Every structure is written in structure tokens, then in C-alpha cells.
Amino acid sequence: MVETEIKLTGRETPKIGVYVCWCGINIGGVVDVPKLCEYSMTLPNVVLASEYKFMCSDIGQNMIMEDIREGKINRVVVASCSPRMHEQTFRRACSDAGLNQFLFEQANIREHCTWVSMNDVPGATKIAQDHIRMAVAKVSVLQPLEVTTVDVEPSCLVVGAGIAGINAALDLGNSGYKVYLVEKNPTVGGHMAQLDKTFPTMDCSSCITTPKMSEVSRNQNIELMTYSEVVSLDGYVGNFQAKIKKKPHYIDQDLCTGCGQCAEVCPVECANEFDLGMKPRKAAYISFPQAVPGQYTIDMDHCIKCGICEEECPTKAIKYNDKPEYVDVKVGTIILATGWDPYDATRMEQYGFGRYPNVIMALQMERLLSSFGPTGGKVKRPSDLKEPESIVFIQCVGSREFTGKGRKYCSRVCCMYATKQARSYKEKHPHARIYIFYIDIRAFGKGYEEFYHDAGMNYGINFIRGRVSELYENENHDLIVRAEDTLLQRQIELKVDMVILSIGLEPQSDIDDIARIFNVTATKTEDGFLMEAHPKLRPVDTLTDGIFVAGTVQGPKDIPDTVAQAKAAASSAATLMAKGQVEIEPYFAKVLDFKCAGCKSCISLCAYKAITFNEYERVAEISEILCKGCGTCVAACPSKAIVQNHFGDAQILPMIKSAIPKELKARGSEN
Amino acid sequence: MSSQELFDPYILGIFCNWCSYAGADGAGTSRMQRPANFRIIRVMCGGRMDPQFVVNALLNGADGVIISHCHPGDCHYVEGNLKTIRKMPILQLYLKQFGINPKRAKYIFISASEGVQLTEIAKQYVEELRELGPNPIRGGN
């Protein structure tokens, strides 16, 4: 690619080429691009200024490359979008043409200029000029730098073993990479294992999940760590060190055969999380019969240490004094697939969840419909175990809610799962009356519209557009539902046996901890989910290199989308690991030892312990391997003895000085 | 320009790459309109904010300087932002002693998703600076 490398010491007279991008009409529609070029020519050291509709296109990049090859320029400024968008693109163009890629600077005249001041043409023009002037000032003082490469450990940490984590782990494991799959619950499968059927194909959820679950536990390359949590993470892309806490099971997992004798004899009953409290479980338990791994766990919050299980266990696996174990793993990449939590329906007080026994949430309905659920697949209402003859579904509980009690976003799955549950129930009870109160039916996926259409046409399910205004129960715990049918413009009052709240998907309650541990907090969106690096083009990357997201940790989505994203995350992680090396931006800090007074104030500031004190020379020293280039020490050094590549005072101060137009300059400043 | 016209403050922003610059990009992508008074310089981390950047900008005639980085606890470089949180109040004290209204150096937290907040703060800051009037050490006429 690189034909002739242009050797530069960085001391040659800068010959700057400025390229102004129209970005279609995004920039060119607001500011006068040819005028900006004219303006750029008035700036110091600028030898040429060109414009093009799309600088990032092949043609645009070739313009830059030709000018470099012909020796017209030795430094490049592109005034276009954010450097977070295309800095890499243009740097690559520079280095392909033989110019050191760090002799490039991008002026952001789109995100920070024309897009935020669309109607203020003079204002936007001024900002564009200022940004170009700053970029020219910076590029004149940039130094050629060499990128450093580090090896990527061929292993991946997958956090969360729901359907997303399982798929990502299997793809990577089958590609030959070592995978550590960490799950906080004693068993894998996540929410999908709780579901009865999946829309729109009405596949039995267990039938498609459990084979994957057992496959993940058997795969040679996958080390499954259930009942474990990542407690801390150090390192960087290619070389992460994670500390994983294995919570005590109080039953020796190697000795346990899963016979269930301990649960049989355990005298303590408590609510079963897997069945959402609708069926008790023992303190010694397994989440559900087909759980993977199939070993039992003792829930110490409820265990009374009576010792009966210890006597009864045929393999003597009970270990009351079990302690947490900490494991350190070294991985090159990380996939976060920690999933979602159901919206807490008690927050919508008007629907009486928690007060009226026969108002249940949809995930509970899944368990009631499931053949291994609390009622063995027969849906019974909680108050009197009667099979309901009439059911109302209330959509958008906690979703599309702008009152502050819920979430503003659409949870994307509720329309379809309510339709699915209604159809499942109708199949067994053709005479049951079912009403679904909705705002809009969002049947956007493959086969979804047909599924919904069929439900209304052939299953006789009543879809009513309108939100429930009032809901109360009578002495028999029947529920009276009032609403307006907004299509017929008619008030409705229904007496039904059961109400199902179609609750939305929320970020996991511990998402903040997860984000903090993995240093992706910066990328949390307003809705609380983790944000992808780019909504269109980098949908599974986070802003932290080497860490990817999969599934509902990134936002509500259905199973097909979750699996697709998991596979995308696995492929992105594999791409990094297959390449084996990753480039690190060399923005290191350096100590100028002739200036260093040896005050040591920088040493305690460094979060990476990259600065050490040379006792013999009495100066501080910075390790390039450990330095991440944040520049904290640079800003703090009282002797200005620490300099930084690319973002040093030498680069930033000229930017600040040139940022302000001449007419605004202060009296005392030097230029 | 007569001084009776609506004063257009010149504001320089110094934003960290990971949270605030990304947040400002997000504001742009979502086309959140703000007054055309902001120029933003990108540095890698909040910890890189040197008080002399602010002083330099004010000496060069900026009417206000806005320093923005990740929320406490969110720093991409562990805790660089905390170092700046400690520096800024001291800087503001100094500015006051030199007769410069400390409001001219503002420090805020903007995460990568807080384009809305940035836009609100930006509008508000322009108003604040309009009330304060031009930077007294600004040269020119």
C-alpha cells in the first residue's frame, strides 16, 4: 500500500493542505464551502485548499493522497465531520500515501457547527472558520509519531449467559477461542428459559434454548462460571485482567449429582425467582428441572442450617462452610450480555399490581402457560385457581410513558408477546374472551404482521385501541376494566377474570455497577441501557476498545435481534483476536529530565502507576507501556517538565491562541 | 458593531474525548440547535485540563471558557476528571482575585448521551455571559 514513505523529521516548513467537505448538504447547505476554502488560503502555512462533496469517499481520499504524493503538502487538515467519525479514515489515507498519519488534523464543522446552528448562517460560518483556523494551528505543530502495537490475548470474557451470551460464547468457542462465560445466577439460559413459546413461529422456547444451554456447558473451549460475578477489570484492549468472584454454592459442585435429595428434605420454603414467586422452592434448590448446570445450590439467605440435607446427601456434597473463590483471568476481548429486568409494575399504581391478586405481569403468564411452570401449563388465576374465561391484556405498562413513572421508549416485544400469549390461551380455551388494550400495535419483524393479523382474524382476539383508565376488583376478585375505545369513540366497561400487564424491558438494576466495572459508563444512554459506538455502523462496539455489547444490555429487543447481535459481537471480538495485534494511539507523556525538579507530584496522580521515580537521577520516569495518554500528569506538573504526544501544551496552546479571531484578541497577548 | 446590539459572547469549550466531545457530537447528530457561540477543542481526558488553558483563552479575549468532562466515577481514565474537579474551584478563586468574574470559567459534566443537557447548558451560559458583558481584558477597539 505505502509506496514511498515520505520521511519527515517534523521540522520541515509545514505545507498544509486544507480540504473542506460539503458532506452533501449537511455542511455545504449551511455554510459557503468555496468561501471557506478561500478563507483557508489566508491562514499561515496553507498552500492549497480544495473542496469536495464527500471527502471521505474514495475520490475525496484520492485527492488528498495525490497531493501528498506529488509533494505539494506535508500536513493535512480536513474540515468535515467529527474526528470521532472519520479521523481513522483520513489517517489511513495519509499513511497510504506515505505521510505519517499523525500529521493530520480534522476540523469538526458538522456536528459542532452546521448541525447545531442550521439557521444561523453567519454564526455557523464564523465557527467553521474558527475550527479550521484551530486545526491549521494544531497541524503546523504536530509531530510524526509511530503507532505501537500490542498482542491480543486469544480469549474472550462473555458476561451473562442468557441467549445472547450463550450464542456469542458458542460462536467464539467453536472458532477455537478460549471463552470464559460468567453468569451471576446458578444456572444459564436467562429470561428465554422462562418463556413458554416464542413469537411468531410458536416454537417451544425450552426446545430451542436447552440444547444451546447444554452445548455451552460441554464445549471444550468454554469455561462456564455460573453463580459468579466479575468484580474488577484492569488492562486495555487485547490485555484485560478480570477478577471473577465465584459465589459459594454451599454444595460441592463436583460431588453433587443433581439427585435432588437435599431439596426433597429441606424444610424451608421460599419464593422461587424463576417462577416469579408463584411457586415456592426450597432453600436447597435448582432453578428448574432442565437447568444447566444441573447441580444444586443452597440459598444461605433462607437456609436455617438444620443439617438435614447434610445427613441425607448420598455423596456428602453439602458444604456449609463454603467460601467465595476469586479467579483471575486474562482476556483479549469482552462481550457484555447482561440482559434486562422486567419493569416493576407496582410503580403503575392504577393497575393494582401487587394489590389485586388477579392482576399479573406477562412474565408470570409465561410461567403459567409453561408446561413446567407452577401450574403445570394450566393457566389458573391466583385468587381461586379458576381457569379464567376472560382476560384483559394492558399494553405499554412502563413503556412509552412520558409521565415519569415509566420509560419513554417502546420495549419492542410486548405487542407480540401479548398476541402470542393470547393465542396460546385461545388454542386451549377457544371460548375464552380476550381483549388487548393497546396504543399502537407494533408488528415490525419478519412474520409479525401476519401473526398479529391472524390473531385478530382467526383466533377472535379483540384488539382495542385505548388505554385503560380505571381498574378495580369486586368481592370475588374479578376485575372491572374501564377504557375508551378510541376507534369507535365509545366507553367500555368489562368484567374479566384476569388482567395481564404487558410490562416493558428495563436495564438491569445493577447496570451502573456493570458499566463502572467495565469502564463503559460513559456510554450509557439516557434510557439507562449501554450505548453502542455508532448507532448504524458500530452497533455492537462500545466506546471502550475491545468491549462489545450483545442483546438487551444495549436496548430492548426480541430474540432474533438479540441472537443476531450476539453473533455480530462474537464476530467483532473474533476479528480482533484473529488479527492478533492491535494498534495503540501513541499519545504518551514523557518527562523532560532536564526540567524535572523531582517533586514527585505527578506520581500519585497517575491512575495507571505508570510514573516511577528514578532515585539516582532524581527525576520522574514514565513507562510507555503503562501510560494511557490521559495527560493528567502533563496538566499537573508544576515545572512543565512533562510533555505529551499530540495533545501537549505545544499543540493545545496554539489552538487556543488561534481560536479567537484577531479582532477579539486581548491587549497583553503576544499575537 | 454597536455595543447596544445583542452581545454575542465568544465561548471556547475544552472537552474530553470520551464523554463530553462524544456528547457534543450526539447533540449535533440529533440536530439540537444551540446559539452559534461555541468552539470546542478536544483533549483526551478531563485530567488534561490545565488551568493555564482557561487563563490563556481569557487573556486571548474569550468571554467564557467551558470545561467539560465525564461525570465523577465515569472517567475513561479512571479518575482524571476528579483531578480537574479539584482544580477548577481554585482557578475560579484566582480569577476572582484578578477581577475576572469566575463565571467566565465554567466546568460541567456531560456524558456521551447528554446532548440535551449540553444544549440546555449552552443556551443558559450564553445568557449568563450576555448579562456579564464582554471580557474586560478583551482588547480591540
SSE layout:
The complex is a heterodimer of chains A (671) and B (141).
Chain A: E1 16-21, H1 33-41, E2 46-52, H2 58-69, E3 75-80, H3 83-96, E4 104-108, H4 110-114, H5 121-140, E5 148-151, E6 155-159, H6 163-174, E7 178-182, E8 197-198, E9 203-204, H7 205-218, E10 222-225, E11 228-236, E12 239-246, H8 261-265, E13 269-271, E14 280-282, E15 284-285, E16 297-298, H9 308-312, E17 325-331, E18 333-336, E19 340-342, E20 359-361, H10 362-369, E21 390-397, H11 414-428, E22 433-438, H12 448-457, E23 462-465, E24 468-473, E25 479-485, E26 490-496, E27 498-503, E28 505-507, H13 511-517, E29 547-549, H14 559-579, E30 581-584, E31 589-591, E32 611-614, E33 619-622, H15 632-636, E34 642-644, H16 649-659
Parallel strand pairs in A: 1-2, 1-3, 3-4, 6-7, 6-18, 7-10, 18-29, 20-27, 21-22, 21-27, 22-23
Antiparallel strand pairs in A: 5-30, 8-9, 11-12, 12-17, 13-14, 15-16, 19-28, 24-25, 25-26, 31-34, 32-33
Chain B: E1 11-16, H1 20-29, E2 38-43, H2 51-59, E3 64-69, H3 80-97, E4 105-109, H4 115-132
Parallel strand pairs in B: 1-2, 1-3, 3-4
Explained architecture:
- The complex is a heterodimer of chains A (671) and B (141).
- Chain A is α/β, with parallel strands linked by helices.
- Chain A has 5 domains: 16-147, Rossmann fold, CATH 3.40.50; 156-242 and 328-339 and 511-581, FAD/NAD(P)-binding domain (3-Layer(bba) Sandwich), CATH 3.50.50.60; 248-323, 2-Layer Sandwich (Alpha-Beta Plaits), CATH 3.30.70.20; 341-506, FAD/NAD(P)-binding domain (3-Layer(bba) Sandwich), CATH 3.50.50; 589-644, Alpha-Beta Plaits (2-Layer Sandwich).
- Chain A is 26% helix and 24% strand.
- Chain A contains 16 helices and 34 strands.
- In chain A, the strands form 12 sheets. Chain A has a 5-stranded parallel β-sheet with strand order 10-7-6-18-29.
- In chain A, helix 1 links the parallel strand 1 and strand 2 (46-52).
- Chain A is globular, with a radius of gyration of 31 Å.
- Chain A starts with 15 loop residues before the first strand and ends in a 12-residue tail after the last helix.
- Chain B has one domain (11-132): Rossmann fold.
- Helix content of chain B is 39%, strand content 16%.
- In chain B, helix 1 (20-29) crosses helix 4 (115-132).
- Chain B is globular.
- The N and C termini of chain B lie close together (10 Å).
- The mean pLDDT of chain B is 90.
- Classes of the chains: A alpha/beta (671), B alpha/beta (141).
- The interface between A and B is large, with 64 and 63 residues.
